[in-house]
Amino acid sequence: MEANGTYRLFQNIYVLKLDQGLVSRVVSNTLLVEFEEDFYTQHRPSYRYDISFSFNRVCLKRAHQAIAAASDPLFKNFLFPECVSRNNIPPSAPCLYSNYELDSDSNSAVRQILSIEGQPPYLVEGPLSVEVLKNEYGDITEIIPSKTGIVVREAVLQIYQHSLKSRILICAPVNRTCDVLMGDLMDDIPESDMFRANAAFREMDGVPDDILPLCLYEGECFSCPSLEDLREYRVVFSTFVSSFRLHNEGITAGHFSHIFLVDASSAIEPETIIPLSNLANENTTVIVTGSWYDYPRWVRADIARRNGLRTSYFERLSETNTYWSFDPRFITQLSTSTEESDETFCHFP
Prior knowledge:
By secondary structure, the chain is α/β, with parallel strands linked by helices. The chain contains 14 helices and 17 strands. The strands form 5 sheets. It has a 7-stranded parallel beta sheet with strand order 11-14-10-15-16-7-17. Strands 3-2-1-4 form a 4-stranded antiparallel beta sheet. Strands 5-6 form a two-stranded antiparallel sheet. A hairpin with a 2-residue loop joins strand 1 and strand 2. The longest helix is centred in the middle third of the chain and has 16 residues. The radius of gyration is 23 Å and the shape is globular. The chain starts with a strand and ends with a helix.
């Protein structure tokens, strides 16, 4: 954002000064903007400003880069899987779940995730991974993992416990989902083994207190540790777009043995494949979760809708022959009660 202010230096002498700021928050129809210190020292309540806005194209550039990388033939089985078989690995030990209330389909989903290796992606259809609980007045009282979130949690924990060589990346469209899932694993995985990757300019006060020690920040900006330290973390959390920072620090494709694309139905496909295009190879096991009642909600351009941008990676994959038959080797559908299904349908028409 740029503000052109007219400042009076002496009587009848004025100068035009250009200040640049960042839109830090949008509250209803009010913008909160941060400027450099000299702007505040010169500002007076009587001043008026001509304001212009510019768009940060970083997220779009990362999505464009992911699309370009997707043309690699090795990437085909992530985007257009045609497999009729897949590699399975025998269980190394019995599953001792930390959550003993897993029902049959949740248990089946976890076991299938543990038994697969490499391409194509494994799909888990069910409610979005985070559930928001409210009181009778509509106030949020708690945010917890949903049935899908518990499946992700248990699968990650089992992989972590049974394979010392495993490196797991959990990505989601929004920070809240990453924070909730990470917080739920902190009782079972040492903090020294987990890292929360953030966008550089994420608001510090938006990070939960228990998650902040697992982040790295310099001043008011979040950063990444050295490549050597990054490689040591066994479980890393990031949004789809911010996962590019791991690649930018030097993490190569194939470093992560497992990549979880959580709530992939909520994001446009170019964003969802950012972690795949930069960090996956033919040996990476990819798990994709989503809901058939969900879709990317920020696609407003008619031309984008007509050309399929509102069709998520999860939805497009689930409609291909590999998954449409509901073969448990490739997809699990988590059952929900009629009430939960109706509520989900109403929320995402």
